[in-house]
Amino acid sequence: MKEFTEQELVRRNKLEEIKEVCNPYPEKYEKTHALKDAKNLKDGEQNVRLAGRIIFMRKMGKLSFIRIRDLEGDMQLEIKIDIVGEEKYAFFKKMIDTGDFIGAEGEIFTTQTGEKTLRVQSFEFLGKALRPLPEKFHGLTDIEQKYRQRYTDLIMNEESRRVFLGRSKLYAFIHDYLGKHGFLQVETPILQNAVCGASAKPFYTHHNALDMECNLRIAPETYLKQCIAGGFDRVYEVAKCFRNEGMDTEHLQEFTQVEWYASYWNFEDNIKFYQGFIKNLLLELIGTTEIEYQGNVLDFGKENWNRINYVDEMTKVFGFDFLAIEDPNELKEKIVENGLFTQADLEDYKSLSQIIDFCYKKKVRENIIEPTIIYNYPAVLIPLARRNDLDSRRIDVFQVLAAKTELCKAYSELVNPITQREAFEEQLKAKAQGDDETMDLDESFLQAMEQGMPPISGLGFGIDRLMMLIYNQPSIRDVVLFPQMKNKN
C-alpha cells in the first residue's frame, strides 16, 4: 500500500472535507480571458472570469492575495472577506493550498505597487492537488526529476514553458510556411519492412497479424519520393523516426524529423529555400535572426553564408585523392601513414563511408561555428543522392552546420533507377564488410522509381536539434517533453 507524506495526508483529509461543500473536481468553468490577456485590461473592467493553478498564497486576516498561472501568464487575485463573504473566505483559508485550481470572477484594478490584479467578487474551487508543489529545481537529481516529471517542470520552470511554447509555435510555422509555398502534408508508415532512407541501426518488431518482421521508420524519405512519383509535386511530413543507436546530448532513439521534397528543384534551389525558411522561423519565434548558443553568437541573417566544399576540404585533410580508393583497409592504412589517426582510432569503422565520415567529423565539423553550407559530398556517403554530372564519384548534396551541429541535410535526389539499384547493391557489400548502418535494397521504392520520377530535391532536419539551438539548451532532453529514461530499480 502506498505511503503518503504528512503534507499529502493533510491534503487528502481536506479533499474529504471539500466534498461536503462542493465537487472538488467540477465539470467545467467558463473563462472570459487567458491570464496574459487579462493583464492588458483596463481598470474597472467588470465580470472578468479567470482560472488557473495557484502558485503563491499570502493568507491574512480579512484580506488575502494569491497568484494563479496558466501556460502563458500569471495574475494576482485579491480576496476580501467583506466581498466574498465570511463562509467563502473561511473555506478559502482552510481548504485551499498552492497547487490547487481556482476560478474567480471580479473587477480589474491596479495596486499601489503597479500590479494588475483581479478583485475577486466570487470564486469556485476547480481542482485539488494531492501533492504539494516542489521547490525550484536545483542540482543533478532534480534535472533527472524534471525529465521524468515534465508536468512539475512546466509548473515551476518559466524557461521550460518558454521552450515548449516555442516548440508548438515551430510546428505551426512549419505547416504555415510550407503550405504557403505549395507543399502538401502527407503521412507515411512508421512500421516498414525495408531499412531505408538513412544510414542507421533500426528497431525491429514482429507484426503478428501478417506474421512478418518489421522495422520502425528511420526516415520517411523513400515513401515521400513515391508520393512524387504519384504526382504530388511538393510534399512534406513531420515524422517520428527511430534509430537504435547511442544516446548523448544531441541524440535520442526517438526523434522528430521534417522532410520536404520538391519536383523540378536541384539542391541549390533547396539552399535558397532553407535560408528563407530558417530566417523567417527565427523572426517568428524569437524576433531576431541572431541567436546565442552555448557561448557562440550565430547570425543566420547574413545574405551569404560560409561555404565549404566537402571533397576539396577532405582531400586537404587526407593529403591524397581519397575518392580513388575502393578498399576500406587501404584507406585506413593511408590515413595512419599520414599520421591523422591510429588503427585503434579507426577499428570500429568498417566501410568507406564510415571511415570518411568519422574523419570529417573529427577534422572538419569540429571547427565550424558560424552557419555554414557544406556541399559536394563523396557518392559513397549517401546512396539516395544524385551523382554529379561532371564526376559520378561526387553527389549534389549540402548540409547546414552551426556551432559544430548539423542542422539539415539536403540533396538533388537520385531518380535514375539503374544507378539507384547499383547504389543499393553497394550498400549490401558494405553490410557484408561489417557496416551495420547500411540500407536494405528496397524493391518497392525501386519499382516506383522505374515508373518514372521528375528531377527532385529534398531536405530533412531534426526538430529537436533545431530547438536546442534556437533556445540555447544544452541537451536534447531539454526540448523533448517526455524523453525516454532508464527504468528506476
What does this molecule look like?
The protein is an alpha+beta fold and 489 residues long. The chain is 34% helix and 25% strand. It is built from 16 helices and 18 strands. The chain has helices at 6-19, 35-38, 81-84, 86-95, 139-148, 150-156, 158-180, 221-229, 267-286, 310-318, 328-337, 343-346, 352-363, 417-432, 443-450, 463-470; strands at residues 48-58, 63-70, 73-80, 101-110, 116-127, 184-185, 191-192, 204-207, 212-216, 234-242, 254-263, 290-293, 296-299, 306-309, 372-378, 394-402, 405-412, 456-462. The strands form four sheets. Strands 6-10-11-18-17-16-15-14 form an eight-stranded mixed β-sheet, sandwiched between helices. It has a five-stranded mixed barrel with strand order 1-2-3-5-4. A hairpin with a 5-residue loop joins β4 (101-110) and β5. The chain is elongated. The protein starts with 5 loop residues before the first helix and ends in a 19-residue tail after the last helix. The model has no long low-confidence stretch (mean pLDDT 94).
Kindly estimate the percentage of residues that lie in beta strands according to DSSP. 25-35%
Structural class: alpha+beta
- Approximately how much helix is present in the residues? 25-40%
Distance between the termini: 18 Å
- Output the number of helix runs: 16
Overall mean pLDDT: 94
Radius of gyration: 29 Å
Q: Which term fits the overall shape?
A: elongated
Overall number of strands = 18
Main sheet attributes: strand count, strand direction, barrel closure: 8 strands, mixed
Largest sheet, spatial ordering of strands: 6-10-11-18-17-16-15-14
Low-confidence stretches: none
